[in-house]
Amino acid sequence: MVLFQVFMCWLLQDADWTLIFLEAYLCGGVINHAMTLAIHDISHNTVYGNSYPLWNRFFGMLANLPIGVPVSVSFKKYHVEHHREDGLDTDVPTELEAQLFTTPVRKFFWLTLQPFFYAFRPLIIYKKAPSDLEIINAIIQVAFDVLIVQIFGIRSLIYLIFGTFVAMGVHPSAGHFISEHYVFKRNQETYSYYGLWNLCTFNVGYHNEHHDFPYVPGRHLPEVRKIAPEFYDTLHSHRSWTKVLWDFVFSPNMGPYMRLKRKASTPQKFEARHAFGEYYHAFLHYVGFNELTRFALQWMDVNNNNKKIE
């Protein structure tokens, strides 16, 4: 998908602006939204496993490239909170959003601007200091963006970034933002979606299954449902993300306020876990670098002692 988007950048470098925006919505947006969900899957260490967290983080940065803005490491940092306890994370709209966006027109406007709410809400309600890996993520992303502009021109970069933001708003693939945790049925907080969009979104629709087994890769989530249907078939689920968006906008019983919100039991801390050094030393230990260094030093000591004896 990364290479496909680079190919599209080459293809559209001299295209008309109308074509660029259409391609961004119909094609690039779908690809980039799929990449954001690839980042979601990678954030659970599903590529290299929990034994190699640093490899997963850098693979996430690779998937991040066509998105245009650095999100991979930051998403991981906040997504941990989402799985720790639903209703406390930054996915939940603020009280101001819930009170303001209540009519169909306002809710449509809210959906359109959802990427901005999604990106900046954490900076308001749950501030966390940037980590070393976030800085590395940003440097790599900016370098890629500059490279795209230098080779293909500004139109190609706008194609990538516009596709990212438009596909997180009023777009069928963005229906999962609403379908996953907005309360459509009393006493149920999480909902699965079983439809064709799962084919290009890493099965993110299997959301109950994902929350039960967060370290199972998306490609295997349908098997979870197949193995234990008695736990999932009785739950309310969705068949159309487009219908979810339609109901969200036009149903008087739906809106940003239809999320369960809990109060944090402990105060939030403005801190960052600088994990690169920790991951790096773990990697050196894995490849035996520390043992090789120790062996080399011992060998040098033995040689020095032999020379002294001579």
Relevant terms:
single chain; 310 residues; mainly alpha; two-stranded parallel ribbon; 15 helices; 59% helix; globular
Task: Give an overview of the whole structure.
This protein is an all-alpha fold and 310 residues long. It has 2 domains: 2-274, no CATH class; 278-309. The protein has 15 helices and 2 strands. It has helices at 2-11, 17-42, 53-64, 72-84, 95-100, 104-112, 114-125, 132-152, 154-166, 175-179, 207-212, 221-227, 241-250, 276-286, 289-309; strands spanning 192-193, 237-238. Strands 1-2 form a two-stranded parallel ribbon. Helix 2 (17-42) crosses helix 9. The longest helix is centred in the first third of the chain and has 26 residues, at 17-42. The model has no long low-confidence stretch (mean pLDDT 86). It comes from Nippostrongylus brasiliensis (Rat hookworm). One of its GO terms (biological process) is ceramide biosynthetic process. Belongs to the fatty acid desaturase type 1 family. DEGS subfamily.
Put the structure in a nutshell.
With 310 residues, the chain is mostly helical. Helices cover 59% and strands 1% of the residues.
Q: In sequence order, what are the helices and strands, one letter per element?
A: HHHHHHHHHHEHHEHHH
Give the CA-CA distance, first to last residue: 64 Å
Total of domains: 2
Q: Tell me what portion of residues adopts beta-strand conformation.
A: under 5%
Q: What does the largest sheet look like?
A: 2 strands, parallel
List low-pLDDT spans: none
| Number of separate strands | 2
Q: Number of helical runs?
A: 15
Assembly annotation: single chain
